[in-house]
TrEMBL record:
Keywords: Coiled coil
Ranges of residues in domain DUF4515: 77-282
Coiled-coil ranges per UniProt: 43-70, 234-268
Region of interest: Disordered: 288-323
Species, as recorded: Mus musculus
InterPro entries, per the entry: DUF4515 (IPR032777)
Pfam families in alphabetical order: DUF4515 (PF14988)
Record field: compositional bias (Polar residues): 310-323
Signal peptide (residue range): none
Name of the protein this chain belongs to: Coiled-coil domain containing 121, retrogene 1
Amino acid sequence: MLAQSPGDAPPPTPHLTILNTYLKPKLLTSLEKRVKRKTVVAMKELSQQIQETKCRRERLLKDSRQLLEEKYRVQAENQLFMEYLRKNKEQCEKKQEELWKQYVQECGEIERERQELASRYNQRNAALQAQLLQGRKTQKDLKQQLQALKPVYKIKEGQDVKIQTLEKEQEKVRSETATKDREAHFQFLREKALMEKELQEWHLMELGQINTTGLTRKYKALALAAKQAHSEFCGSLHRENQQLRKELQQLSQEYGRLDAVRSQLEKHRQLAKEQQWYLEALTRGRQRLQAERERHHRGHNPRLKEQRASKTMLSTKSKASSK
């Protein structure tokens, strides 16, 4: 600092001015000069520190003013924000009260609906129980009727076998009748040929070419035999026809009676099948209603929901009041 030029040196401070005025260099000893130089250096350093301190103080004052302005601005903003929070809190509390009232109302409606559903379920369950008892009773009656119809069914089976046997016998009789008809027809043709031959002989006899005494007797015997054979053949055919008609009428009556029994058995079997379907449908409906009731009690219990919602609302209100 002693080597600085006079143009670069800072202006003398009041302390240096006083020191130079009262401590002139010409009047000082070497020791005093050395002390003066050290004092001047120390005072210059002190003056520089003072200047730096003033600059720092000005900067700090400026920063303090800025901080105070920022503080006032932040306080104003905080006041606006607190006002906004207060209004928002009031709106939230009002909304919570409205939601709570709505929740209580909905819980009441759900409870009423649950009671109505429970009442309807009990009514339907009672109706299904009555129908189930009626169905079981009907099934028991049908089983008894089926047990009673088993002998009839066995009789029907025996009659079916008998009908088949009679049909086979009827076919056999028809085939035998056709065979007898053919044999009788062949016999008739043979007798006709013989009679034509005899008639020719009779014609010759009338012409006087043959002796008529033996032929007349022979002709009468043959005519009587032919008449008797024809009468017996027609009678046997008539009797066989009457017997076949009688058997056919009996078979028709038996078939009609068996067909009526078969229709009755078929109706009873269909009724038993429908009753079984009805009972199975009732059982499935009862199981489905029971499952729906259990699922309703597990997943839609309004009391549990109300307790959980009450705990949530109370915790929310306690937090809001603590803030």
